[in-house]
Structure formats: structure tokens, C-alpha cells
Write a structure and sequence with these properties.
Elements: E1 38-40, E2 53-55, H1 57-66, H2 69-75, H3 79-83, H4 86-95
Antiparallel strand pairs: 1-2
Helix pairs in contact: 1-4
């Protein structure tokens, strides 16, 4: 059962100063992120990756559908190597004209 009063003091909701928070750019496409931000591990956690980068959900789906964990481990955090792939470059050029909250069905893994 939840407590009515915290033993560590009262809860103070964050104050709004009417200053918009900085919108991070997507790691893959460089567009500003929308309402939904996916924090993606460029090097998969299963391969020892700890760093996370902000991405659009559709960009993250494309990366995971295009590359294996071994490939992502080799590329590390070098986005230029990912963009050298023709399928990823075609996707980024296509999605550049879309709204930041755009979403569509992603392709299946190409293995």
C-alpha cells in the first residue's frame, strides 16, 4: 500500500519557466527528434555497448533491420560508416522530408 506522506519530505513538481527544453537531433538522420525519442545503443549491449544516442523510432528500426549486432559492433559510433550503406543512405534521404513524428511500417531484417 502506498504511503500518503513521504518520510523524506514533500514532492515538489518541476517548475515551468516557459523555456522549451533543447530538442536533441537524431543520431542517424540529423533531424530534430519528435515526441518519441528512442535511446539507442550504437554498439549493442550484448557486445559491451554502454553509450546511448537519441534516435527517431523509424531510424532505429531501420538500423536494426539492416545491420547485425556484429556489424554494429564493428562500426561502433561512426555514423558515417552506417550512412555508407546504400539502403541506409536511401532511407535517410527519403525520411529527411518527413515530419519528426512520422512513423511507417519498417522493413524486415535482410539476412
Amino acid at each position: 500500500m502506498a504511503r500518503k506522506h513521504s518520510k523524506h519530505g514533500s514532492y515538489d513538481p518541476p517548475q515551468s519557466d516557459d523555456v522549451p527544453a533543447a530538442v536533441p537531433a537524431c543520431w542517424l538522420c540529423g533531424r530534430p527528434t519528435g515526441k518519441t525519442i528512442v535511446w539507442h545503443h550504437p554498439v549493442p549491449k550484448s557486445r559491451g555497448g554502454r553509450d546511448v544516442v537519441p534516435m527517431h523510432p523509424i531510424c532505429q528500426q531501420t538500423v536494426t533491420a539492416t545491420f547485425t549486432n556484429s556489424e554494429l559492433e564493428r562500426y561502433g559510433t561512426d555514423v558515417d560508416q552506417l550512412l555508407a550503406n546504400p539502403a541506409v543512405r536511401k532511407f535517410v534521404d527519403w525520411v529527411a522530408k518527413k515530419d519528426p513524428d512520422f512513423s511507417a511500417a519498417s522493413t524486415k531484417k535482410q539476412r
